[in-house]
C-alpha cells in the first residue's frame, strides 16, 4: 500500500515512529514542511526535515524532540562569546554537521531534495523524505505591534510572546512542489496528515501551488493536533484564530474540508464526532496522546483503518 505523509516537526516525527511500524516503510513517502527553514551563521537550517531525520534515524534529543541526542554547544558558545554572534537559536555541535553538509551541497548546486535524500541516506531512513519544495518559502508572522518576523524568530527568538495579526508565506506563490511530490500523492493509496500545526506546517505544505489540488482526488486521513481544545505541543492555538479557525478538532477539520476523507480525534473530543462527520469526513475516536510507541502505532493503524 503506497502511503504519503504530510509532516511538520516534533508531533509529526513522533507519529511517524508509529506509522513506520504499521506500513511497509519502503512504500512510504514523507513530505515535510520547509517554511521553518532559516539561514544562520551562513548555514541553511531545515528544522522540520532534521527533526524527522533525527527522530526516525534514532539520534534525536529525547526530551526536546528536536536537535541531537548527546549534544554539546562548544561552537555555539564560542560564536556568542568570542564573536558576538546571535545566540537566540542554538545550533549544537553535532547538529552543525548536518547544516554544514546541507549548506556545502546547496552551494555546490544540489537541490534541497537531493541533499535531503543524501542526509536521509546517511541516517538510514527506511522511507523517502522529500521537502515540500526546493524553492525558498519562508513562514513569516505579522505581529499586532507591526513587525514582520520570520517564524523561528517569533517562536524561539521572542518565545511566541507577540500577538499574531497574520501569518504569511514569502515565496509560496512562486514555489513548485519538489520532484516526486505530486507523483507520490497521485500514486498514494492514502495520504496521511500527521498531527502537525495546521497553519505553519500542514498549511504551509498546502500553500505550495499544485499540492492542495493533488489531494482532491486522493484519500486523505488526518489526526487532530488539538485535543480538548488545547495543543498537545507547539503553538497552533495562537495561530488558528489568525486564520479564522476554532481551536478544536472540528475547527481544524474545517480547514481541510475540501479534501479531508477521514479525521481521527481524541477520546476527549468524542462529543465533536457528529459535528465533524456532518462536515463530510469519516471520524474515528481513540487515544491520540503519543506517550508510548505502542499507542503511536495503534494511532497510525486507526488512521489507516479509516482509509
Ligand atoms: N527550539 C527552541 O526553542 N530553541 C532553540 O534554540 C532551537 C534550536 C533548534 C535548532 C535546530 C532545530 O532543528 C530546531 C531547533 N529548535 C529550537 C526547535 C524549532 O524551533 C522547532 O521546534 C522546529 O521547527 C520543529 O518544529
Key phrases:
single chain; 307 residues; alpha/beta; Rossmann fold; 7-stranded parallel sheet; 3-stranded antiparallel sheet; 13 helices; globular; binds ligand FO1
Architecture overview:
- The chain is an alpha/beta fold.
- The chain has two domains: 3-134 and 179-306, CofD-like domains (Rossmann fold, 3-Layer(aba) Sandwich); 138-172, no CATH class.
- 36% of the residues lie in helices and 19% in strands.
- The chain contains 13 helices and 14 strands.
- It has helices spanning 10-22, 47-56, 74-81, 93-107, 112-122, 151-157, 181-186, 202-206, 211-215, 236-239, 249-255, 273-278, 293-306; strands at residues 3-7, 28-32, 38-40, 43-45, 128-131, 138-143, 148-150, 164-170, 190-193, 220-223, 226-227, 230-231, 262-266, 282-286.
- Strands 5-2-1-9-10-13-14 form a seven-stranded parallel sheet.
- Strand 3 (38-40) and strand 4 (43-45) form a beta hairpin.
- The protein is globular.
- It starts with a strand and ends with a helix.
Bound molecules: ligand FO1
Top-tier CATH class of the largest domain = Alpha Beta
- The total count of helices amounts to 13
How much helical structure, as a percent, in the residues?
Answer: 25-40%
Distance between the termini: 11 Å
Structural class: alpha/beta
Question: How many beta-strand segments?
Answer: 14
User: Quick one: biggest sheet?
Assistant: 7 strands, parallel
What's the CATH architecture of the largest domain? 3-Layer(aba) Sandwich
CATH topology of the largest domain: Rossmann fold
Strand order of the largest sheet: 5-2-1-9-10-13-14
Give the topology string: H per helix, E per strand: EHEEEHHHHEEEHEHEHHEEEHHEHEH
Please tell me what the overall shape is.
globular
Number of domains: 2
Taking all Cα atoms into account, the compactness measure Rg is: 18 Å
Beta-strand residue percentage: 15-25%
